[in-house]
Design brief:
This protein has nine helices and eight strands. The chain is α/β, with parallel strands linked by helices. Helix 4 crosses helix 5. The protein is globular and about 50 Å long.
Amino acid sequence: MRIDLHAHSTASDGTDTPAELMRNAAAAGLDVVALTDHDTVGGYAEAIAALPAGLTLVTGAELSCRLDGVGMHMLAYLFDPDEPELARERELVRDDRTPRAQSMVGKLQALGVDVTWEQVARIAGDGSVGRPHIATAMAELGVVPTVSDAFTADWLADGGRAYAEKHELDPFDAIRLVKAAGGVTVFAHPAAVKRGECVPESAIAALAAAGLDGIEVDHMDHDTATRARLRGLAGDLGLLTTGSSDYHGSRKTCRLGEYTTDPEIYGEITRRAAGAFPVPGAGGDARA
């Protein structure tokens, strides 16, 4: 089985619609794909309706968190999307995204960048607006060569010249809320130093003690040595280890299925989940 547990659609900051993402996942030879848009479950219905035979969908979300001033992302899988407390927190994060993005546009304009809110809103479309949409606008204007190049201290990285804060969950609260909604939690790209400061390993140990299920190890932002170190840390802490593409369509260079999760780990995730079940396409298999 080929299993990719981290992918984004136009419901947040990907460039594939949820339906296109399902078709592209099947074309990439995946057996299982997780839809993990930022702080939203808005792509679920379209993805399920378009799910092709032989592909299983894991519903999820990537939750925006912050610990001691350091941003981090928590992947949440197979939770009940209607659980009210978690739904309320997702809504708070989403509601803060637009004023935050508008603030960053204003900071860029003050730095001499001719980006406009209308341009960013066009790029975001119906999705949950975020930094990648602003970075795309900057790339369109030729301010940076690629979207990734906007995520530096000069521009949009945490603490960067054009950075603005938004409402984010405490990761310990995120774990509690996802667990209460029957879901499973995995710390996304925990050592992606290219993106800025990362939480220390001591914090990962504390999160594990609080119920964190796993960490994303095999990811494009982790080099070989980092993956080996994270795998050892996971072993010491009793955490599951996942691998995934963090696919965003044409907005990033990663390909669907570029990194994958071991079927046994996927099976354990589905066994731990109680809020929702994987959705098989016609002729698919819901569980590993």
